[in-house]
Amino acid sequence: MDERLTNSRLERAIELMPKVELHVHFEGSIPGDVIEQLAQKNGVALEGRNRANPALKYGHLINFLEAYRLRCRCLSTRADFERAAAAVLHNLREQSVRYAEITIAPTMHRLNNVPMKEVMTGLDAAARRARVHGEFDVRFIFDIGRQFGVEHAWQTLREAVLYMDLGVVAIGLGGDELHYSPEIYAEHFATAKRQGLHVVAHAGEVGGPASIWGAVKSLGAERIGHGIGARGDERLLEHLKVENVAVEMCPTSNVETGAVRSYEEHPLPEFLHRGLTVSLNSDDPAMFGVSLTEEYKLSSRLLGLSWDDIKTLSFNSVRGSFLPDVFKQDLLEEIQGAISKIESRENLT
Description:
Elements: H1 3-16, E1 19-25, H2 32-42, H3 61-72, H4 78-94, E2 97-104, H5 106-111, H6 116-132, E3 137-145, H7 150-162, E4 168-174, H8 186-194, E5 198-203, H9 209-217, E6 223-226, H10 234-242, E7 246-249, H11 251-256, H12 268-273, E8 278-280, H13 285-288, H14 292-301, H15 307-319, H16 325-346
Parallel strand pairs: 1-2, 2-3, 3-4, 4-5, 5-6, 6-7, 7-8
GO molecular function: deaminase activity; hydrolase activity, acting on carbon-nitrogen (but not peptide) bonds, in cyclic amidines; metal ion binding
GO biological process, one term: purine ribonucleoside monophosphate biosynthetic process
Protein name: Adenosine deaminase
């Protein structure tokens, strides 16, 4: 069969297949035109291209985080959050995303004097409208920024518990990985679990194995965001596999921030083929100029993944989600059935 034809069919199948996204940040997903309109409305001066449109390389994670903070300043009212969330959820639904767990940055909005009630009622209103269309659902993760300190972390945890009835399912750890170890927040994460929240952590994005070990051992992280720092640590990789700690990988993000030098050097294929529960994610799609669908296409073109690999990534996204087991199984069967039909139609079997 002609290779170009095969690739065309595979990319069409990727476009059609139902998807799940586990590692995607709300503020970094807001389309550039919406950010620009909100900035104008709220009197925020955007510097240069502000990285709101398809990105060039940020050069360093710190440069990216500065651009992220600027985006957060563009949101100040319930209506702003509802408008932004409607655009984010529309883009997910357009990619055949069936379910997403979206990370929010409460501390950044708190520092901008935006009450969490404004944030969550806006997000909830957009989520309710998106669900009306069917075949789509969304939950939220509240992120603790390491660099903001333990008191802000406690406030984020209190807010997460308060808004569990609006879809908050987990606490996450993000921010400056190099200067703030996971162990600082062990008590926060233990409390979160006692309150019925799941726990995740960015680890091994720019840090090494010790950061990931800390997230797993001290925080009890059920999923690791990025995790590229595990490469080369055989004991850690085996632990992640045996303990079924899911790894949310974001290749374009890692290339754009300089965490890896190129797609070809990204460890996703290695981790996947070792049997880790690896999922594929877009991280901050509006800032990196990539969608989840495009991440899947790039994984085929540049990471050398086969159609079977792509299916495994898709199924892993469901398995690694925080859906209740019965809903998780239903969604997995739905996606498997839909993919079987796509395979037959696109002659990929």
